[in-house]
Specification:
single chain; about 500 residues; alpha/beta; Leucine Aminopeptidase, subunit E, domain 1; Aminopeptidase; 2 domains; nine-stranded mixed sheet; 14 helices; 18 strands; about 35% helix; about 20% strand; elongated
């Protein structure tokens, strides 16, 4: 992965393959011009005054210095309107810079921050944009044209002060970005390369690298324990279901753990309630919530945070077969509640419900967050760029939303009124697993709420944001495929909590 460092250096003295200067829209002057040689400065002024380059957001132009300065090339990158510029836009611009440098086949870049006021959040955003934009999934390409020697491997951010502090920020970003890209790698795996068993092996490999305890519950053990929802969904596949439990103990104090649960359906055909064939190939991404949990635990362990965190990942493959669970089946869940199955394609909520009930009973967590590519209704309601957040605790909800504004991973709260619980009442069991088309994302959360007791809980429906799809807004730091949505937000929230205690 690319390495990022900060350095105190004047651009008139900085030897670099590519110097990056941000230009705000329709602003003709910027202080950095004064440090360039007369010829280069004149060329830039002429380009800007002629409106050949006007600083529109994301636009760029490359100038060759022809050895008239210490830099070989200069990239002018448009920052858009100054009053609209934000950390999220800095993240996108930094990603564009990284991709442009890759196209130019330069291995080293020096970049001037896009603001005269240097804040930790800005350096964090720039670093994230660079690290995340350079991700690519090439595991199965037999002829990978990206030569090892042509990769961007060093970015220097030129600062005047606070070097040690900002380098610490960058070091944290590099660890978190590595974890995000790890999660993207797993999420992008095709189903023939990523069964529940494969995810179990990945969990064990994490325990060899980090101080993480791993326990894997197998089918018959789950059956004997009463985790019948996970078993029911997974029994139609030749790949047996599993419940992966990851434990990170970073605090020796008597501290209740954070609990993060992620849906990992390694492939979702819909089961007996078979999905249409169109875009079924995207159902390899139905494991993204579980892959996020792997990444969150990896990031927290890498950062050595003084917190305790439990990760639960129910893993199944939802297949139609003679052993599959059926519409009209009634399943007794871990907490004793019975559910009537009306649609086997509403399987994610069933495996999450069992995991919620088990995790809360076993570990008594301080709070619970779950991530799941749960409903198409969420995409209909909020599109492909905003995740739905539904929960039982206003304080936790507000905390999560505030952090998501910093990370650029947008979430929006949907209400959980009593009326939605009415929609999932069953005539023959305690509840049913679908509540009809109206409010589908919310009735799915209403179903889950039956299994959380009084523990603070927020459910994140990431069906629209977990991978790039129709309607996805182009962000340079989210290459095609899995995005790792939610990882940075949850890690940042837990990090801030750890640093405040």
């Amino acid at each position: 992965m690319v390495h990022i460092k900060v350095e105190k250096s004047r651009i008139s003295q900085k030897h670099t393959d590519l110097l990056v200067i941000g230009v705000f829209e329709e602003e003709k002057q910027f202080a950095q011009l004064n440090e360039l040689d007369t010829s280069t400065r004149s060329n830039i002024v002429e380009i800007i005054n002629s409106n050949e380059f006007h600083g529109g957001f994301g636009t760029s132009t490359v100038l060759h210095t022809f050895d008239k300065g210490p830099m070989k090339k200069i990239l002018l990158i448009g920052l858009g309107k100054r009053e609209k510029f934000s950390d999220e836009l800095a993240r996108i611009i930094a990603g564009k810079v990284a991709l442009k440098a890759k196209d130019l086949k330069v291995t080293e870049v020096s970049i001037l921050p896009f603001s005269a006021i240097i804040k930790e959040s800005l350096i964090e955003a720039i670093s994230e944009g660079i690290c995340l934009a350079l991700y690519s999934f090439n595991k199965f390409k037999s002829n990978n044209s990206e030569a090892e020697g042509s990769r961007l491997n060093l970015v220097t951010i030129l600062l005047d002060s606070d070097l040690a502090k900002m380098q610490s920020v960058i070091g944290r970003v590099e660890l978190i970005s590595e974890a995000v890209n790890f999660g993207r790698d797993i999420s992008n795996l095709p189903p023939n390369e990523c069964s529940p068993g494969k995810l179990g092996s990945l969990a064990l490999s994490l325990s060899n690298e980090y101080p993480i305890k791993v326990r894997i519950l197998e089918r018959y053990e789950m059956e004997s324990m009463g985790l019948c929802g996970i078993v029911a969904v997974g029994k139609g596949s030749n790949s047996p279901p599993k419940l992966i439990i990851l434990e990170y103990e970073g605090s020796t104090a008597e501290q209740k753990p954070y609990m993060i649960i992620g849906k990992a359906v390694t492939f979702d055909t819909g089961g007996i309630s078979l999905k249409p064939g169109d875009k079924m190939e995207e159902m390899k991404f139905d494991k993204c919530g579980g892959c996020d949990v792997f990444s969150i635990i990896k990031a927290i362990a890498s950062l050595q945070l003084s917190v305790n965190v439990i990760g639960l990942i129910p893993c199944v493959e939802n297949m139609p077969s003679s052993n599959s669970y059926r519409p009209s089946d009634i399943i007794k869940m871990y907490n004793g509640k019975t559910i009537e199955v009306l649609n086997t394609d509403a399987e994610g909520r069933i495996i999450l419900a069992d995991s919620l009930a088990y995790g809360i009973a076993k570990y008594s967590p301080r709070l619970v967050l779950d991530l799941a590519t749960l409903t198409g209704a969420c995409i209909i309601a909020l599109g492909a760029n905003v995740a739905a957040a539904i929960g039982t605790n206003k304080q936790l909800m507000e905390r999560l939303r505030n952090v998501s504004e910093k990370t650029g991973e947008r979430i929006w709260e949907l209400p959980l009124y009593d009326e939605f619980h009415e929609q999932i009442k069953s005539n023959v069991a305690d509840i049913k697993n679908i509540g009809g088309r109206p409010g589908g994302a919310i009735t799915a959360a209403a179903f889950l709420s039956n299994f959380v007791d009084d523990v603070p809980w927020v459910h994140l429906d990431i069906a629209g944001t977990a991978w790039t799809q129709e309607g996805t807004f182009e962000r340079s730091y989210n290459p095609k495929g899995a995005t790792g949505f939610g990882i940075r937000t949850i890690v940042k929230m837990i990090t801030e909590d750890a640093e405040s205690t």
